Structures are given as C-alpha cells and as structure tokens.
Amino acid sequence: MTAPVLGRDFRLLWAAAVSSRFGDALRTPALALLAATLTRDPRAVAAVTVAGQLPPLLLGLLGGAYADRWDRRRTMAAVDGLRAGVVAALAGLVATGRAGVAALAVAAFLLAALGTVFDAASFAMLPAVVPSAALPAANGRLQAGTAVAGGFLGAPLAGLLFAISAAFPFTLDALTFAAAALLALALRPSPRPAGHHRAPNRGSVWREAWAGVRWLRRDPVLWRVTVATTGSNLAISGVMAVLVLYALTVLRVPPAAYGLFAAGAVVGGLAGALGAGRLAARFGTLPALRGVLLGQTVALTGFALARHPLAGGVALACFAAGTTVWNSLWSAYGQRHVPPELLGRVGAAQRVVGLASAPVGAALAGFAGEAYGVAPVGWAAAGIFALVTGGAWRVLRGTGSRAERRTEPAGRP
C-alpha cells in the first residue's frame, strides 16, 4: 500500500500547527517558571495554570461557532496574528520587569481563548485540503509533528531559554505565532461549505454553537466514541496528575532520569501517530478504535503492575501510542462524517465533552494519592479503562460498522 499524497496545502497547514505547538511548548513552562519567580504562593502560581485551562471548557463551543461563521483560512491567520501580539506584549512586560501574576493569568486566558477558535478552524479546514481517504494519515502526521515540536524540542528548550533571559521564550513564541499566521494565509482559499448560508439565526452565536452539540448528540456512533473519550480522559488525567510522583516513588526512576522516562512516552506517541493511517486502512476506523482501547487497557494494567523504570516506561510508551492513534482516528471519523458547514461546531463539541472529565480525574487522583498513596491510582486508571473498553466494544460493534460503511470512501477521486 502506497502512502497517500497529501499535497502542498496540507504541508502548509502542518507547518502552521507545528509552529504554534512549538511556541506553546516554550511558553507554558516559561509561564510557570516566571510565576514561581514572582511569588511563592501556590495559589497564585496555580491560578496562572488554571487561567490557561478554563477557556477550552468555557468557550470551546463559541470557538466552533465562529470557526463555522468565518472564512477558516483567514480565521486561522487572524487568530495567530492576535496571539503573536499578545505574547509580544507579554514579552515586553517581562523584559522591562513590569509583568505581575495578574498579567500572566490574563495572557494565559487570552491565548487559550483565541486557541479555541484556531483549533476549531484548523480541525474543520483539514478535510478541505486532503482527500477523505487520507484523513487518518493526515491527522496522524499532525499528531506526530506536534508531539515532536512539543515533547522533543519546545519543552526541553524552555528552561534553557528562560535561564538566558526570562523574556526569551515569550519572544520566540510570538515569532512562531507570526510564522503560523503567514503559513495559514498561504493556503489556497477553499469554497464555503454547501448549506453554510442556511445557518439558523445568524444573530445568535450560542444557538449556532448548540447546533453542534445537538448534531453530535443525535449521531449514535460519534456520540458513543465521544463518551468513550470522556471516560478514557478521566483515567489519563488522573495518571498524568501524579505521574512524576508515581515514577519517583513506585517505579523508582532516578530524578536525573525522569526526563528520559517522560521522553519515552513522547516516542510512543510519535510511533502511534505515524501508524494511525495504516491501522485505519487495514482494519477500518471504528474497529481500529476498539482495538486501540483494548491495547491501552493492557498497557495501563502493565503500568500498574510494573515496579521497575524500564517496564513502567515501556508500558507508558505503549499507552501513549494508543492515545495518539485514538486522537487521530477519532478526528478523522468526525471530519469524514460531519457535514462541512458544521465541522467547526461539532469538532468543538467533541473536544469540550471529551475534556470535561480531565479536571475531575486530576482532582480525584490528587485526593486519592494523598489518602492512599499514588500506587492505587494506576490500578484505578486501569479499571476505568477496562470499563470504557468493555462498553465501547459492546456499543460500537454493530452500528459502528454500518455507519462506517456508509461514510467510508471507496478511494481517492
């Protein structure tokens, strides 16, 4: 089987997404480091992190509505241009010593709020630049590129650049947003989706936003896949919330080797992203999703059983591979199945519903780790994954295969 030819516009879209992700990976740890240098109050430091986590849940649906209202190519360019301006202003405040915790929190909130529009527009833009049959592979390559930019390049560089100058990571982040805006503008204009002019009550953006939720809720397959994502994110966020403590105390990873341990998960995620298209082509999207959940349950059980850094690292890498495959195939199925004029809103609804359990899982893991130690968190996550897998295998078996046959293209036109 030959690899799909994704074309010039996909390369531009990929480069824009990877550039933005690289900047995010520089800015996020730099914000935390800067907050810690300004205050030792844990509440203030946490407030900066929370300010960047709230917009996807609070404003994600609105971001999808605006992504469907406006020209998506220009929207992506305008949003990244605005984000470049926000980060450049923050870099100026940091360089002149006038940045306080409040300014960091406001910047984090604004950047995340603008990001909801960019994410919805880029999700809806992808089917316009690649053939339908190539969507799993295209999503996988996007996942792979952002994993490399964030895990291998941006995150390790953030601390080094911050040590040179506190303003340096933010200045570079502004440049990456500006580059991403120019790359988005270089995309060829795509025709407006059929039926776009029939959006109900253009004066009510909330009504348009909820149209995406209603469509998602009425589609049995996509809704069940989204609910499975919500359940799996409950477990994933719990593990990630205590991962550093789990690695140091349960797996006995030496502190100096924790970066290498975490890098193994990035390698696993990269391998999964690059193989997502082949899995979809070989088994079909929905059967592959069911298989991925089963494999992740086995990997997470192995992680809970492990008491050695190598065994735990391999299990975590396998689990991360399944996560990127799931994200790639889940996105591709929605992009193929949802009407083009609703893609931004339905994609935003998928993300909001799918991420709703993440803060709950993190909080529960924190309380459980305090009360019982972090080792039981691994077993609890494996148990949740087993329940999600059992439910998904049951509800996606019949209706899923029929729906996929209905929407699966015969091949490239």
TrEMBL record:
GO terms for molecular function: transmembrane transporter activity. Keywords: Cell membrane, Membrane, Transmembrane, Transmembrane helix. It is found in: Cell membrane. Its main location: membrane. Pfam families: MFS_1. It is a multi-pass membrane protein. The chain crosses the membrane at residues 44-65, 101-130, 142-164, 221-249, 255-276, 312-332, 352-372, 378-396. One of its GO terms (cellular component) is plasma membrane. This is Predicted arabinose efflux permease, MFS family.
